[in-house]
Design a protein that fits this description.
The protein is α/β, with parallel strands linked by helices. It has 18 helices and 13 strands. It has helices spanning 14-25, 32-42, 46-54, 61-84, 113-124, 128-150, 171-182, 191-212, 245-249, 278-290, 306-316, 340-354, 368-374, 395-413, 420-426, 431-453, 455-463, 467-498; strands spanning 3-7, 28-31, 87-91, 105-110, 162-165, 221-226, 229-234, 257-262, 266-271, 294-301, 358-365, 381-386, 417-419. The strands form three sheets. It has a five-stranded parallel beta sheet with strand order 2-3-1-4-5, with helices on both faces. The chain has a five-stranded parallel beta sheet with strand order 11-10-9-12-13, with helices on both faces. Strands 6-7-8 form a three-stranded mixed beta sheet. Strand 6 (221-226) and strand 7 (229-234) form a beta hairpin. Helix 5 (113-124) crosses helix 6. The longest helix has 32 residues, at 467-498. The chain is globular and about 95 Å long.
Length: 502
């Protein structure tokens, strides 16, 4: 059950090296091309998915579902082969499909660009300039794929145990050298790693079954397994399909127990308008990633008619209900007329989708009671962020109405409700907080240093006799201690925010 993963370029000697090494070790060889072909037979449109991975602006929820299906299929394929015997997989970064499997031997095969260009010129019969441009484009595409798909750097060599440069080494000799390394105890399977493989395989099979089932295929699930106990979590907008999960999963071999629950970590972001909120959206996404949470967007429109909202919801509910027949990249369709605010909501939500933290979106109109009633009290929100609301009111009325609405939301959801400005001040680290950190650090250091440099005059000042002087000394001491406490407290608070310990 030993596993070797070789990361190679499509035009390098890496493929020949992988085949030779598998032959010498007697391992089963599996290449990325075989995996892609099998995925296509599974019904996964890998070409469309790869195009979207290379152009993140094309990613939507439908493509994220396709990505989850492909990732589960690839993981299941490798785990099945590994549990059946020793396997060598060669492609891009297959080891990233096996989190927690510590005995994987990870090899990166590299060559000089000149050698790769020569190989392309010979294979494609093109000029040096065209071959060079082709090689650079392919390398850039692979880099983007790995970054978007795994959030990893293709060129970060610490992902690998060994890097092989085949410019001045034959494929056969390189394979012979790696045979000795493959025999090291660090790369031998253990009962613990076999358990991890079995758990990954079962979780992947469950995710594939949910993707294959027509009624659950358009919903997002997070699946884990532990010795036959399977946990499936879903997002609030997929609550309607939760009852279908046991029927799909319970019949799978290896499932001894099933837990199906709604995801427990969510951020609710309520705002009247979402235009020009790119920076804010990035900050909320950072907060969501920090706490492994999904973000649900609600655009609250006071007084808008129900028919308009229904049309907006039909569009902005978006990807979960779209067809999969075209592989996840929608063809051009007649555009539904929408206001600029609805378009801005769609853009904000697409940004969350691309960031992998989307938890649904909707539009609510009418009195504040309609908004409060529309919120699902069964969802465990760990924080509710309230942005700008009641924009047509005066400042005083806007503050009062927002405060009243926040209180009603907090009472219904039993979750802390904070304004966007308060969130930035207390939980987010940005340029303003960086400036505060530097200034308070310097002032605290100056006060601390001055206390020691001038300690004799200070002590003499505190010891002087007289009631009036003692009162003045006590007042000066109270002010100095308070100022130092404020400066040092602000500095420490920003340091904790910087290291994400708020």
């Amino acid at each position: 059950m030993n596993i070797i993963c070789i990361s190679r370029g499509s035009e390098s000697k890496g493929k020949g090296f992988a085949v030779k090494l598998a032959q010498k070790l007697g391992y089963e060889a599996l290449c990325r091309e075989d995996l892609v072909e099998a995925a296509i037979k599974e019904g996964i449109t890998v070409g469309r998915l790869e195009t979207a991975m290379l152009k993140p602006q094309l990613i939507n929820e439908t493509l994220l579902l396709e990505k989850e299906h492909y990732q589960a299929f690839a993981t299941a394929t490798i785990c099945e082969r590994a549990l059946a015997g020793n396997i060598l997989y060669h492609g891009r970064t297959g080891h990233l499909l096996l989190p927690g499997v510590t005995h994987v031997m990870k090899i990166r095969v590299v060559e000089s660009q000149e050698a790769v260009i020569d190989a392309v010129m010979a294979r494609m019969n093109v000029s040096w300039a065209k071959a060079k441009r082709y090689v650079e484009d392919v390398e850039e595409d692979v880099h983007r794929w790995v970054k978007t798909y795994y959030n990893a750097d293709w060129n970060l060599l610490t992902h690998f145990n060994v890097v092989l440069n085949l410019d001045e080494m034959s494929v056969s000799n390189a394979a012979t050298a790696m045979c000795s390394m493959a025999a090291l105890p660090e790369f031998q399977s253990t009962p613990a790693t076999r358990k991890v493989l079995a758990d990954l395989l079962l979780a992947s099979r469950v995710r594939i079954a949910l993707a294959r089932n027509e009624r659950t295929s358009k919903s997002r699930f997070h699946v884990t397994a532990d010795q036959g106990v399977v946990s499936v979590s879903y997002q609030p907008q997929d609550e309607k399909v939760a009852d279908l999960v046991p029927g799909v999963v319970s019949t799978l071999e290896g499932v001894s127990e099933l837990h199906c629950t709604m995801a427990s970590s969510y951020i609710l972001w309520i705002q009247e308008r979402f235009e020009d909120c790119t920076e804010t959206c990035d900050q909320v996404m950072g907060l969501a990633r920090r706490y492994n949470a999904a973000v649900e967007l609600v655009r609250y429109v006071p007084g808008q008619d129900a028919e308009t909202i229904a049309q907006a919801n039909a569009v902005d509910a978006g990807a979960p209900g779209r067809s999969r027949e075209n592989g996840g990249i929608e063809d051009d369709v007649a555009e539904v007329t929408r206001s600029e605010e609805d378009v801005s909501l769609r853009r904000a939500y697409d940004r969350l989708v691309q960031g992998g933290v989307a938890g649904g979106s909707k539009v609510v109109s009418g009195p504040t009671g309609h908004l409060v009633d529309s919120l699902n009290a069964r969802v465990s929100y760990f924080i509710v962020v309230v942005g700008e609301l009641f924009m047509d009111k005066g400042h005083a009325a806007r503050v009062r109405m927002t405060r009243e609405l926040s209180g009603a939301i907090s009472e219904r959801l039993r979750a802390p409700v904070v304004g966007m400005d308060e969130l930035k001040k207390t939980m987010m680290f940005g340029p303003r907080q960086a400036m505060q950190l530097v200034v308070t650090m310097l002032l605290s250091a100056v006060l601390f240093l001055a206390t020691f440099v001038f300690q004799i005059p200070i002590l003499e000042f505190l010891r002087e006799e007289g009631m009036a002087h003692r009162a003045m000394a006590a007042a000066a001491l109270a002010v100095l201690v308070s100022v130092f406490a404020y400066l040092y407290g602000t500095f420490a608070h920003n340091v904790l925010k910087l290291v994400k310990m708020e």
